[in-house]
Amino acid sequence: MKNNRHLKNSLYFGSEKEIISPQEAERLSAIESIEVQYRWAHQKTHPFCDVFDKLVSKPSLTAIKVADFNFSPQTLAADIRFLELLSSVKSLTQLDISVTFQVPESNPPLDVFARLNQLENLEVLDIEIKHSSPVSEDLFLSLQKLTKFSLKIWEYPEPELVTQVINNLMQLPNLQQCEVSSIHNSPLNPAKAIAFPENTGGLPKAINLHKVIFQNLNLRQLPPALIHCENLHTLILENNSIVHLPGYLPQVKHLTLNGNKTIDLDQILTCVNPETLQSLNIGSCTVTQLPARIGDFQALENIYLGRTALQKIPVELIFLDKLTGFHVNMPQSEVKDGAPLISLLKYVRQDTYSEEEKKRIVAVFCMNEDYLNDVSGSELLPLLNVKIPAVVRNTLIVLEKKITNPFEQSQVLSLGGICLFGTVDGISTKELKEKCKKHNIQLESTLTEKTTHILIGKGITEEQVQKVQQSSLPLVTGTQLKFYLEKLDTPFLKKSDTHTQTNLTRLLISVDPANIQLALEMINQGGLPESILYTLVLVVLQKELDSKVKKKAMTVLEKYVSAEIVAVVKRIRMKTDYLKIIRLLWKSPEVDKTLLARAILQFHFEEYYSICSKEHQDMIQSETISKDCLYHLLTTSIEDADFALQSQSTNTILNWSWLPLDKLTSSKASLEKVEGLKIQISDFVKKKNPLKSFTGLKTLYLAKSNASLQEQAKANLEKLQQDVPQLQVVFDE
User: BRCT domain location, by residue (predicted)?
Assistant: First the structure.
């Protein structure tokens, strides 16, 4: 009921301050409506019932709204008296009441429905309750004049209440609108869905129903009596568990099934009239596609498909001349919001297109592959003239799938000329000509005798399309040509084997400038393998390198390496302190730290070998010595410890005897794979639990020291070996 507090013949009691005395109430005349905020009205200091007793006797009173009608144990007598007074207003035609309970629902005086049944002249009844109250079988027996009914329940109602209320409503001959809904928004359980028996015991009397709303009720079925409601034009069934409609509903104009997860859309469309249905809402349903017969529903103005699993849109939408609203979430960006599709439909409805052409335009716009599979490439070519960019782009995408790539089995020199129409995505005509010229492929602007293939792209004119259709030459799309040229330009060294890359590395780290020059020429022509990138960086950093060779190396580096790394190298290339170089490179997010570490090991291999003792030279291939080589290039910071460990994470033996152990255990590097560890015995004695990070440790090497330290170490080891029984300890000389 609308708020009538400002009307001349209306009363509004929203607080204690607005209450009047019984004497004042008795003197009032021509009162038509009352609105009451009941939560305070039963208080003893303001005997509202005495005032209400005087007001309900007015024959002019036709509308009452009661908010927060709250039953409570403390005021039960006053509450029941108010309800009795309310049900005595014989002139009442409109009642809006919200009811809450703080007393047991099974208490007979609280049967609100039964008491309101006495209002024989009631035409509009709106009830909002918190719980599913028990109801009698003859619920609305006397409400024969009721035209509009609304019941809202705050929680999910009991199935018995829902079926009983709805079955009672179907027996009211004057009922035109009815709503039964739950305000609760929890997920529905289809296993506990409410159903109606097929035989309801005779025909319904509510044949004048024109609007039905059943929301959040977990209905699995609708009352079969609905099929007899010949005036039913609006059916809102949001958030239920409905699969089918009960039968043919020819007059329904607006059908909302939003939130019914498992609807049978084919069955539902057979139950509504294609010449009548104006709006269809099947959002949040498990609908994967609209059936082709949707094109028969020529009265449709709005379709809502949000939050569905829809993957395909039928081309038959072109027949819906009245469709002005299309709301959908689709993977294809063109139709995601629906508005672009509506614009397209308006465009293709022009008389200049045939029925089949309209279907093709919609099909490529919506990428309906089922339809496009049966359409030839020549039939799609005219679509390149459509003045909608998305249609042209999608047409090219479809053509690419239909055209066999002519380059797969061809030699570069045998391609001859290509007829160029329009432009190509992602590359200018000038760049394309330069690329083609490099590989002896000639581009022509029109069809000539030299033409061996036809290249199609954007901006194709109708005349050019006709030439393409008349020609028997193979078609090539711009994307195909671009991909082919990139394939021809792919550097051969990028896919070279390990042996080739090893030889290339040896040339780069050579002391002979000629060898380095040869390696740079090979990289410049054949590409830069990822594994050699940082070796090339270190070549550029050498101060003693020949200036011409260094310049060439920098040119090659700039050709293949990211601008971020080049910027770092340019800042530090005159430095000879490799520790500073490593730190600067390490801080760059563009640097692959593992590859950089390997490059350092390779680059300094010869230098390290020359200063090693004979014993070390015999062990030069061992992983431990290689790791030492890297460690001596680093400082003792935690960051460098991380760098050292991560770069050689495959090694299983760590020689950390020359660095403090806390640098190792404080690093973020993974230590689970370490099986052998060499450390100073003093480090082992000082730490309470120095090896907690080495979960896979099998052998511990401790350098021998004075007797006192060795005794302390043995005591610690006995305790450690109780927790790690597989651990072996070796005291090194």
Answer: 418-477
Structure tokens at 15: 């607080």
Sheet strands (E) in 173-247 = 177-182, 211-215, 234-236
Residues 112 and 91: their CA atoms lie apart, in Å, by 19
Contact criterion met (CB below 8 Å) for 81 and 51: no
Comparing 136-150, 261-275, 404-418, 510-524, which segment has the lowest mean pLDDT? 404-418
Residue 219: what residue type?
L
Contact between residue 277 and residue 300 where contact means Cβ atoms under 8 Å apart: yes
pLDDT, mean of residues 333-351 = 88
As a whole number, mean pLDDT of residues 36-40 equals 85
Residue type, 3: N
Q: Is the pLDDT of residue 308 over 60?
A: yes
Q: Summarize the confidence of residues 17-22 as an average pLDDT.
A: 85
**Which conformational region is residue 131 in: left (phi greater than 0), alpha (psi within -120 to 50 degrees), or beta?**
beta
Could you tell me if 687 and 663 are in contact, meaning their C-beta atoms sit under 8 angstroms apart? no
Q: For tokens 């409109």, name the residue.
A: 94
Buried b (16+ CB within 10 A) or exposed e, 387-410: ebebbbebbbebbbeebeebbeee
Distance spanning both ends of the chain, measured CA to CA = 98
On the 0-12 / 13-18 / 19+ scale of CB atoms within 10 A, 318 is: buried
pLDDT of residue 649: 46
At 321, list the tokens. 């001349």
Beta strands 325-328 and 302-305 are: parallel
pLDDT at 586: 64
Q: Report the C-alpha gap between 415 and 290 in whole angstroms.
A: 45
- Give the integer Cα–Cα distance in Å for 698 and 730: 11
Query: Where residue 314 falls among pLDDT bands split at 50, 70, 90?
Result: very high
DSSP-assigned beta bridge partners for residue 78: none
Question: How far lies 54's CA from each of 23, 37, 39, in Å?
Answer: 8, 18, 20
Torsional sign, CA 113, 114, 119, 122: positive
- Cα separation, 36 vs 65, in Å, equals 6
Strand-pair partners of 423: 458
Residues in the chain: 733
The closest alpha carbon to 637, from 695, 580, 691, belongs to 580
**What CA dihedral angle connects 486, 488, 489 and 494, to 10 degrees?**
100
Nearest partner of 672 among 649, 696, 705, judged by Cα: 696
Identify the pLDDT of residue 467. 84
Most confident of 235-244, 624-633, 711-720: 235-244
In contact, 663 and 635? CB cutoff 8 Å: no
Q: What is the mean predicted confidence (pLDDT) over 309-326?
A: 92
Structure tokens at 259: 């939130």
Pair of tokens at residue 565? 């790394």
DSSP 38: G
* Burial readout 365-384 (b: 16 or more C-beta within 10 A, e: otherwise): bbbbeebbeebebeebbbbb
Is-contact 63 94, C-beta < 8 A?
yes
pLDDT band at residue 192, thresholds of 50, 70 and 90? confident
Give every CB contact of residue 346 below 8 A, 6+ residues apart in sequence: none
What span, in angstroms and rounded, lies between the C-alpha atoms of 10 and 36? 11
User: In a 3-state reduction of DSSP, which class is residue 635?
Assistant: coil
- Report the share of the chain in percent with pLDDT over 90: 29
Q: What pLDDT score was predicted for residue 717? A: 77
- What rounded mean pLDDT belongs to the chain? 80
Handedness of CA 207, 211, 217, 218 (dihedral sign): positive
CB atoms inside a 10 Å sphere around CB 456: 27
